[in-house]
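Components:
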Amino acid sequence: MKEVNLNKHERLDDLLCNDMQIIQSAEVFSFSMDAVLLSHFCSVPTKGNIIDLCTGNGVIPLLLTARTKGNITGVEIQERLADMAHRSVELNQLQHQIRIDQGDIRHYHETCGYGQFDLVTVNPPYMRDSTGRQNINEYVAIARHEIRCTLEDVIAASSKCVKSGGKVAMVHRPSRIAEILMIMQQYRLAPKRIRFVHPHVHKEANMVLVEAISDGKPDVRLLPPLIVYEADHQYSEEIKRIYNENNMKVESCNEHEQQ
Amino acid sequence: MKEVNLNKHERLDDLLCNDMQIIQSAEVFSFSMDAVLLSHFCSVPTKGNIIDLCTGNGVIPLLLTARTKGNITGVEIQERLADMAHRSVELNQLQHQIRIDQGDIRHYHETCGYGQFDLVTVNPPYMRDSTGRQNINEYVAIARHEIRCTLEDVIAASSKCVKSGGKVAMVHRPSRIAEILMIMQQYRLAPKRIRFVHPHVHKEANMVLVEAISDGKPDVRLLPPLIVYEADHQYSEEIKRIYNENNMKVESCNEHEQQ
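Structure:
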C-alpha cells in the first residue's frame, strides 16, 4: 500500500473490504451504512462501465471493485471530497479501475456522452434544501441537502448517463419514495426492484433501495424488508452477512450519520 | 337478523364482526384478506361520508361499520354483485348507514358531485386486462382484471369523489406500486402512508396498502412490514390481533383467492 498524505481533520479508516483503506473526515464526509447497502443491493455487471454520481469520498466505487472488473467512474461536485476520493483510489492502487472526476452531475453527460454506462449508482443528498440545515458546515450541508442538485437533477443525470437497458440504483429516504418513483418514470426509468430498510421489524423504514431499468416496463419486485437489528439489539444475520461478504467490520462505517 | 333469499351458488358466511353475515359466492365473488386489511389500515373518520369504490359484495362497507358511525356508500358495476351487497346490508339491518349503488365509478361523480367524501376506499381489479384471464368466468374476470376500469380510472374516480384534505386508501399488488404512486400524484393525491404485506418476513411483498391525502404534500411514512405468517406457519400476532379486533375468525375470508 502506498503512503498517503492526510490533510487536517482527515483520518484513514480500514474499509476492510479487500484490505482497502479510505480517507474520511468527520468534518467533511464519512460514509454511512447507506453506501454499503447500496453497493450490495445493486445489480453489478461483471464487465462494462459503471458511474457513481455524488460519490463523496469514493466509498461506493471502492466497494464495487470487490464485485466487478468493470471500469468505475465517480463524480463529485465538491473539490475537497473529490480530492479525498482521488487519494483513496491511489492509496489502494486502483487507478486502473476507478476514475474520479470533480464535476457537476447536471452537466456530466456533456463530458461523457449520453447512454455510456451499464450501471449508475447514486447516494444523493436526501433532504430538501429548506429543511433542517442548522449547525452543519457547508461541506456536510452540500452532501446532505439539495443545495447543488435536486432529486430531479439526480434522476435526470442518471437517465442521461445510463444506456438503454442499463440499471440505475439509488438509496434514499422512504419519505421521498412517491417523488422518486414518479420522477424516475418521467425520465423513462422503470422501477424494478425496491427494498425498504427498517431499523427493527416493528419500526417504520428509514432507508429505501431502488433499482430501475432504462426503457423497461414498470413491474416492481418488492423485496423482503431488510431488518437491521434483531429484538436483542444485535445486528440481524443479514446485516452481518452483508458486512462479512464485504469482509467489513460493521463498526467501520458511521451508520448513525444523519444524512 | 332478517331472513335472506339466497340465489343459486350463494352461501351465507359469518363475517364475525359485530355478528354480521355476508352473502358470498365462490362463482361470483368472495372477499379476501385484502379487504380485511384495507378496512383495518385506512384512517376512518368517526363521522362524515365514506365511499367504497369497486365494492364487490359490500365487505368493506360492512366491516367499516365497526369503526365509524359515518355514512358509507358502496359502488359496484356488476349488477349481480351489487344485488348481493344490497341484500347483505338489509340482512344486517344497516340500511340507515350503508347505501349500495350499482354504477360505473368512472361516472359516479356525476351522481354524487365532486369532493363529497371524507374517505374513499378501493380494492380494485389488480391485473392488467391482457394478463392471465384463463379459466375464469366473466364475474370473476371483471372483479380481478382491468376490463371495466383501469388503475387510472380508479384513481381518477377517487380523486373526483374525495374532498380536499380527505383520504384515499387503496389495496393493490406491489408490482403496480410505481404506477400507483405516479398516477396518484398526477391526480393531486399525495401518498402519505404505505404498508407492504409480506407472507413471511423473508419473502417478497404480495400486497400493498396505500393512503393518500387530497391536495397534500408528498411525504411518505413507510410503515413496518405487515408479516402474515411466522416461521412456524402460524398467523403472526398482528394478523391475529387484526382479526380479533374485528371479532373475525381468520378462516372466514378466502385469503388464498388470487385476485
